[in-house]
Amino acid sequence: MLKSKLASKLVPYVPGEQPKGGKVIKLNTNENPYPPSPKSVAEVSSFDFSRMRLYPDPTAEALREAIAEVEGVRKENVFVGNGSDEVLSLAFAAFFDGESAPVLFPDVTYSFYKVFCSLYKINYAEIAVKDDFTVDVEDYIGKDLSGIVLANPNAPTAISLEDSAFCRLAEAYPDKVIIIDEAYVDFSKYPSFVSLTKKYENVLVVKTFSKSRSLAGGRCGYAIGSAELISTLRAVKDCFNSYTVNTLTATMARASVLDVDYFDLCIEKIKRTRARLVSELNALGYILTDSDANFVFAKHPTMSGKEVQNALREKGVIVRRFDSPRIADYLRITIGTEEDTDSLVEILKTL
Ligand code: PMP
Prior knowledge:
By secondary structure, this protein is of the alpha/beta class. The chain has 2 domains: about 5-35 and about 260-350, Aspartate Aminotransferase, domain 1; about 40-260, 3-Layer(aba) Sandwich (Aspartate Aminotransferase, domain 2). It is about 35% helix and about 15% strand. The protein contains 11 helices and 12 strands. The protein has helices at about 5-10, 40-45, 60-70, 85-95, 110-120, 165-170, 225-235, 245-260, 260-285, 305-315, 340-350, and strands at about 25, 80, 105, 125, 145-150, 175-180, 205-210, 220-225, 285-290, 295-300, 315-320, 330-335. Strand 9 (about 285-290) and strand 10 form a beta hairpin. Helix 2 (about 40-45) runs antiparallel to helix 8 (about 245-260). The radius of gyration is 20 Å and the shape is globular. Bound molecules: 4'-deoxy-4'-aminopyridoxal-5'-phosphate. 4'-deoxy-4'-aminopyridoxal-5'-phosphate (PMP) binds near residues 83, 208, 210, 216 and 221.
């Protein structure tokens, strides 16, 4: 067999479709409908491409300094990687292991967590979310566990927890790592947990440039946590690939994180469009969660999720659906531009 035993058992994560051509309205992977910060684009225009001859800075210091400045932490508290998927993957390898008690995460959450566990042979247990898809942190208390991973806002439900919930977990398990995946936090009504990483040494917050900063194609994500957590992550990274963030991406990401005005503008626009889409969907009778992210999680009152997804697809609108029992009738629809939303709503009205 031309495979390791491990490789023959893997069930990989399946990313959302990236259509190759044709005119589609792409609302399936929670990308930002607006371009990256003009300041980060200007960095590419004036970039000295002879720098690409050299390896990147293995610690991406200039980028980490900029992130530290904007996040109000020190650069020793920042780790960067090739998208937050890579940061999460390294964090699973760094903080959890196979022989110990399980890592806990919700049964309805980002499906990559299970994939990391299978890759690294980590025990895990899924804790059922409530019928309304909310997470109750009390379900995570009093358990034998080796860590907790929560996406906040959660994906694909778009629902947030207040930070007091995370304080409860961080205090209940001071010697276990609690990972908070804040891929969508910039669209939330609640603040990021980053400020609390100074108080809780066991909490690692993971963020991305892919959503709120329109740099999904650049592949850059980061983690913030105590210096001890960050140096452990760095050690694992250096056993895998010293240069995970390329020079061009690091340059764009740095300019992007420092461009606070443009960031605020894009977030405001997306939140405004979200409010409009939510009210249109409510008017059409859809069942919705309380979206705190750059997507909504919505179910048609009578049609199956598959039927609605196919009907949209026929009209050139791509949305995401997960074929797992509790959520198969829900669609995860990314917030696009105002025009995307007009087209989407027009089609939904015909169903
Ligand atoms: N976490 C969550 C909850 C996500 O939905 C995604 C996007 N698929 C990621 C992390 C990864 O994002 P990226 O690797 O683009 O930073």
